[in-house]
Amino acid sequence: QVQLVESGGGLVQAGGSLRLSCAASGRTVSSYTFGWFRQAPGKEREFVATITWSAGNTYYADSMKGRFTISRDIAKRTVYLQMNSLNPEDTAVYYCAAGWRSRVVVPGKSPYEYDYWGQGTQVTVSS
Q1: What residues pair up with 4 in beta bridges, in sequence order?
Q2: What is the pLDDT of residue 27?
Q3: Which of these, 45, 100, 38, 40, lies nearest to 70 by C-alpha position?
Q4: CA gap 99, 52 in Å, rounded
Q5: Residues 2, 114 contacting (CB under 8 angstroms)
Q6: What contacts 38, CB < 8 A, 6 or more positions away?
Q7: Where are the alpha helices (DSSP H) in 1-127?
Q8: Contact 34, 96 (CB under 8 A)
Q9: pLDDT above 70 covers what percent of the chain?
Q10: Is 39 exposed, middle or buried (0-12, 13-18, 19+ CB in 10 A)?
Q11: What is residue 28's predicted lDDT score, i.e. its pLDDT?
Q12: pLDDT in tens, 58-75
């Protein structure tokens, strides 16, 4: 089992940056693939990015490429999402997710591939 706790959300002006963190705990963190998703009011949960724990391979939604960067710190057991050039359309609750590595078929775009979710962190981008 894996527990996930996100942090780093907040209010930022358009063009600004934020870095989200996802602290993972549990005995088998290295057996999981981690993803970030987001959900805006009235919309479905949307894939943002994925990272494999061991190799650090990364995958992104097309609209996030070049603006967002997913990374992980193995020693800290933390996954990060660096978000640059934010715009109001990026406003959403951002969720960290973990899926058993053999269950997530990279790029891991479907939320149904993930077994564990954090509580979410709100990101609001003002114009």
Answers
A1: 24
A2: 81
A3: 38
A4: 10
A5: no
A6: 45, 46, 48, 90, 92, 93, 94, 95, 123
A7: none
A8: yes
A9: 100
A10: middle
A11: 86
A12: 999 999 999 999 999 999
